[in-house]
């Protein structure tokens, strides 16, 4: 059952079809909420977003991609949450223990790379909100510019410039020593 | 997963010189671990919540006449002005709030999202659905809502009349994408606006001050229960005004003069 079919069935009141849609996008929705600042409330945000998405499903333009439409609701929920508590928790994510593919037999090199990765993550966390959101969507969530624009509710031009400014700032922060 | 695929459509004009940094960021993103409950559990929890609530996305007539209508889903129509022109350099992020009964204008320093997709000139009535929106006769609509429902003499009888959100919103639709929403304007919405051109323009219509939103703009509703926003669609230029405690929203009239004439003909 592809997205379109699941949506069609959901519109007919088939909750099982919607359940399948939720399961399909659950991980990405959590990732989006956490990375846009929902912190430990990501689970609540995601659940609420899916409930809202279901109720707004009639407004979904059939045939257009479901993913950015859903993630926009997730992003809105996240922003409502952060606005209501008056602060953002920034990007919540843990650095996984990942073996660096460029240095499998070089523990020292891997440690250096790991350190740089941690610094880069810190630098992303420290970006101004707009730039961080754009960078997170583009690179951590791997959304296209058009999707990022839809998810963040901003024009593509703004996404482009925010991303560019964010990259420039990151380059300044962490340098380019590890090519 | 499709999110792993490269996006050829927009990689070509990436800023030059950031390729290595971008690759690092992609790799960093891959290595980030975000805790999440098992998808099946999330799906089950969402389903349980939906099964508990009668609100559904179905646009057909709902058999929901019980007294809990106010508790279910709230809709305040909100219009976000479209900012089609590029924003001039470095406008300060001064937020201004613009209130009109039942409508929240969010004016941003940056253009509103989405490609302008005005209602097709010859299209059927908009497919947008407010919560619980369903077709009724004009007489039924008048019986179902708490405020006086008027019709614009300039337009004649509407093709379709709908009632939404448990009697809070009455909408009338005419061919060509014309849509008039009338809604209970006595409940204060949260109102929020950021500066950015083009600003809504004041228009004198129907004996009241109205605002003309001259660009296509995203439209959504605010849930009464928790004030959160749900996007609906891209709306065509719209005239909004309040009269007698009733909020009005006229979309698809084309230009502000015609919109004002229609507004002035409400009886």
Descriptive account of the structure:
The complex is a heterodimer of chains A (179) and B (267). By secondary structure, chain A is mainly alpha-helical. Chain A has helices spanning 3-11, 15-38, 42-55, 66-84, 107-125, 129-140, 145-152, 156-174; one strand at residues 94-95. With 267 residues, chain B is of the alpha+beta class. Chain B has helices at 8-11, 19-31, 39-52, 138-144, 256-264, and strands at 32-33, 76-79, 98-100, 103-105, 134-136, 160-164, 169-174, 178-184, 201-205, 208-213, 217-222, 229-235, 238-243, 246-251. In chain B, a hairpin with a 6-residue loop joins strand 11 and strand 12 (229-235). Chain B has one domain (67-264). Chain B starts with 7 loop residues before the first helix and ends with a helix. At the A-B interface, helix 2, helix 3, helix 4, strand 1 and helix 5 of A face helix 2, strand 1, helix 3 and strand 12 of B. Strand 1 of chain A pairs antiparallel with strand 1 (32-33) of chain B.
Percent of residues in helices of chain A: 55-70%
Number of beta strands of chain A: 1
Taken from the alpha-carbon principal axes, the silhouette of chain A is elongated
- Provide the number of structural domains of chain B: 1
User: What is the oligomer described by this structure?
Assistant: heterodimer
Q: What is the CATH top level name of the largest domain in chain A?
A: Mainly Alpha
The count of strands of chain B amounts to: 14
| Alpha-carbon Rg of chain A, integer | 18 Å
CATH topology of the largest domain in chain A: Rna Polymerase Sigma Factor, Chain: A
Side-by-side strand order of the widest sheet of chain B: 5-6-7-8-14-13-10-9
Note the gap between the termini of chain B: 56 Å
Order of helices and strands of chain B: HHEHEEEEHEEEEEEEEEH
Average pLDDT level of chain A: 84
Organism (chain B): Nonomuraea roseoviolacea subsp. carminata
Keywords (chain B): Membrane, Transmembrane, Transmembrane helix
Protein name (chain B): DUF3040 domain-containing protein
